[in-house]
Structure prediction request, 475 residues.
Amino acid sequence: MAQLWSTVSNEKTVVTTAPQTPAPATSDTPDRVKRFLHVLIEPRSYLNALYLLTAFPLGLTYFAVLVTGALVGSLLAGVLVGLLILLAVLVAAWGFALFERELAIWLLGVDVPPLALPDPEVVSPWRMLVRHLRQSTTWRSITYLLVKLPFGIFATSVTVALSGPPIVGIVYPIFRLLNSGPFPPEVGLLIFPGMVAVAGLAVALQVLNLIGRMWGRFAADMLGVSEEQRQIWDARRKADAADRSRRELIMNVSHELRTPIASIQAHVDSLLLPEADRPDAEETERRLKVTATETRRLADLIEDLLMLARADSQELRVTNRAIDPGPIAEQVVLALAPLARQERQVTVSLDEVPAGLHAEGDADRLAQVLTNLVRNAINYTPEGGVVSIRLSAGADRVQIAVSDTGLGIIAEDLEHIFERFYRADSSRTRDTGGFGLGLSIARELVEAMGGSLSATSQPGLGSTFWISLRRAEAT
Ligand code: ADP
Prediction:
């Protein structure tokens, strides 16, 4: 069990890869010209130009506030007011850096890591200040704010110099045309310089985009926490989550064990009473039956916990090969249908299985998952309902759907039913149902087969659980 306590974690990492579309081999001149001129209709180009245009006034503001504040603060450092001014400079620098980070994200379109990582610890303002001063991001961001002034002088003047003349060249002919009617005599004379101006604006935007991209990369390095810090924070977060999950599991297991053990204890104690106080034969039999049922439930719980412990320590044995899910589903239906009809008047059926369907997976484990899903479906479907299994195939996936006409699951519960010990309606299932581990085990098993398990539901109408496996070639 110690293994289980130390390894429980529900975190899953999903890595998705965007499909790589090869760039079309367009080497002909019209296409190149089109791509070059495309910059004119990209909103990002204008946002980038706006960023560069405002770089000087912003850089000047940061420089003036920070340098003046630091000088005055240092001169008066002997008295309290000087220290307060230095503190205000630090706060202002932090505010400017936050603002600059947002500007870089929204106007330059760069991905800047956060300036600071959330700290779960509550610390005193003094320790917060010390931490802030020790952080490399603090000093990197202040350097960035100061460097913004020389960069701003360069960026704003280049922006004005490069985009000013083409803009005048475009606006002037339009202005003339508007003033002198639709067909002024000099219309021909105006069109040619207008076209040159448009080409000039495209060149200007291309150059400004290049400057913006380079500065954006610099901003991402200077304004965000380093990759190393992020990794440390991530590792700490995962360790905390594992620890929390371990504590939750201990609490859940203790809680779950308490009720059946108390019931067993009470019944056995009553059977050990002096002869005169013992219940009659009929009551004794009833109590023994309850004890037997509770003991079986406890044994099932231990099995489930062991299964989860194996999954957590990557010891869950799943042998994946090409399997035929049709006969497996048939077996499950054959095993469960008679009892469902007899005891609950619920019909369990299997729709026609498409021919030649093969999936990648483990036959025994798939049978275990299907049994669990069909059992649940029977349990949560009122008398006279129907549980049906349907197999279908896409280009590279095989899907097995287990649907019922039962109670359904409300949206808030649907998000959690695959979590350990989660039961949608605890008052309904706590005493008679399982421990809320079945679906989490089923999901672990399906994922170990390289597939996924999900659910959809319409409260009051029924639910469908979907097993999706990779399609395989028959061997
Ligand atoms: P349990 O052993 O308690 O059934 P599971 O992990 O198998 O645990 O299911 C978790 C919860 O999901 C159940 O307590 C039940 O509330 C809900 N649930 C599962 N299957 C169905 C279903 N077919 N219809 C309605 N609710 C369901």
